[in-house]
Amino acid sequence: MTQPVAVVTGASSGIGAATARRLAAEGFEVFAAARRLDRLERLAAETGVRPVELDVTDDASVAALAARLPECAVLVNNAGGARGLAPAAETEIEDWRWMYEVNVLGSVRMVQALLPAMLKHGRGHVVNITSVAGHAVYEGGSGYTAAKHAQRALSETLRLELNGKPVRVTEIAPGMVRTEEFSLNRLGGDADRADAVYRGVAEPLVAEDIADCVAFAVTRPPHVDVDLLVVRPLAQAASHKVHREN
Ligand code: 8X3
């Protein structure tokens, strides 16, 4: 029996890498896609996933991946990220543009490219990794919360438009997840500020916690659509309300 195909974007680290690893363990043939092929090759050697160089902001790159996949069962739109924590009035327009390109337009491009392969498979599942930032705004988060709200709007619109077709749409909205790169990228590589995001938090989520949610959603029976999972660490009651121990 051939294995169902799952595509995971942003698979070179963090939630994407953990999801690729987990879906391979669940029996999917996983195409682990990202820009950094060297990292993907290491993941592939460990887990048997197929490494694919992909830039979700580039039409040709996305089309090249789609051309390799006549059928696809699951698409996990995980590629994304945040840039900056400045007040809106002081943000860089370029940061807004980058966040919109990767989080939002990257997801749209992937859906457009892979939907035919999902329909060919006879069943499909789009899993969008958004954020609690797609559900509430917070100071310093303007460009990121705007992009994540848009990615959330895409998830909800798709579910309406695909009604009647055998394609599920799940949004997973993580809160504070401690990964190697998320805060470091957001803060321009400032390791001290990145560490401070998690300082005193007993147990932030880890990438595997979100991979677990993806695995749950995609392994439900086909008639069950998990619309939305909002997942935070116990210490985070809201984006701005985090219990920290000294
Ligand atoms: C990451 C969670 O709280 O930094 O998507 O917006 S948060």
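^ 2-hydroxyethylsulfonic acid complex. The mean pLDDT is 97. The first helix runs from residue 14 to 25.
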